[in-house]
User: What shape does this take?
Amino acid sequence: MRQSYTLPEMFLLGTLGLALLLPLAAVLYIFIRAAAGISLEFIFAMPVQRGITGGILPAIVGTLWLLFGTTLVVLPVGVGAGIYLAEFAPRNRLTHLLEMALINLAGVPSVVFGLFGYAFFVLTLGFGSSLLSASLTLAIMTLPLVVTATREALHGVPVSFREASLALGATRWQAVSTVALPCARSGVLTGTLLALSRAAGDTACILITGAAFFLPRLPTSFMSRFMALPYHLYISATQLPGMPVERIWALPGYCCS
Amino acid sequence: MPYQQKLVTVAGYTVLLLTAAIFLFVAAQAWPFFREQVDLSFFTGDRWLPVSSPPTFQIKGFLVSSLMITTMAIVVGCPLGILSAVSLAELLPRQVSVRLRSVFEMTVGIPSVVFGFLGLTVVAPFVARVFNLNTGLTGFSAGLVLSVMVLPTLVSLADEALRAVPREYAEASYALGATRWQTIWRVIVPAARSGIIAAVLLAMGRAIGETMTVLMVAGGRLTTPGSIFEPMRPITALIAAEVTNAARHSEQYHALFAAGLVLFAITFAVNAIAAAVIVGKKGAA
Assistant: This one.
């Protein structure tokens, strides 16, 4: 069936077009401007002269380490909590409180997570400004995303699947781990990737908990300070006059991809 | 109970524990400041002077800045976002909507620092030229960038609310001879009202909490802005800019946590209202 639209309806479609165009144009513009600054040397070399020449390897590696650390923490806790909420949580006031906590945790601004991470991990626990502090902070920030994705994915698995498994003599845990969870895999994966993309792009948290601007060596352990792509972009764009323009433009290109 | 089940239970309660811990920990760091503070000048005063003696910490300017930029983002973003959601949910064929939705979801992944960078290099110079200002780094530019940033939240939630309206409502309206335009605005949108309000509130929460964009684009002047066309510093930017420079347990350190607590309280309230709007709707239906 062909759709036909009246004039005011076309106006609505126009607003949709505009809303889609703005972010897409932004991304396209960045990639075009970035093309001039990207080279193999830029990706694989150490920065020299506070990053004005040389490459951004430590920032790339730093971001990868951050993601690794974040995943290590957020995946077991987030998926575990999601399984609990979807499969085992009794319908009582405590569970209701837990759900409310989850909603509110999702709404906390990242800079408040940063404040918490700074006071708790960096200062109180004495982890210092380090990969460890930043990864833990990012893990807490992304936790609600993973929990919600896991819970929703498990809710999407029909109850009859579990009942069939129970009827065959499986325990409740076996029904969940061998039947429901594998069915929910793709949902859990999507949620985790979403969480990681947020962790990779976040700047406010790591700026408070341990990112360094210029550190021309790779992090050696989770206790080292580190460079990271988004923070590098922030500093290059705001605090460094004389930074070659095409070198800055190349950065968001990586942040986006 | 097998040990695996115990483990996931522990994981579940970790979420609860963490939320409480964040609030309590930030509050504990802010407490020494509030204990010294005898009046409300923290909220009503205009002077943030961390290095003078004695130092003064008053956050009215930052609160007003946050309010101005958030309002701007919502006023510009809402019409765009809600009308887009109506197009997606009611006008376009299903297959097209599904594709466009995934495009919106992709734009969620653009980091805020990238938006900030675009604001700094593209939007701010543009705003300076159009309005003939000395600097484009103003609340206006930041609000403009934020209005694009809140679009994915707004569109996906409003779209979801519109699609949740039972098909029968629209069919009944058509059966009475209403046009599609009438059906959309007299039946479907009013029925989805609470979901749309919740979407706006959640987008507002996002705009208030946004840090990097406003830190880079809003200009950073510390006093209360007279208009949105002046440089300003919202409360998120204040925290991000100063916390690592403040000596631990200095007055400035505690004052920044106090500001963080205020920010936490504001976003908490906005999100709680949004949740209440949704739950209230479910209760009534």
Observations:
- Chain A has twelve helices and two strands.
- The longest strand of chain A covers residues 47-48.
- The two ends of chain A are 38 Å apart (CA to CA).
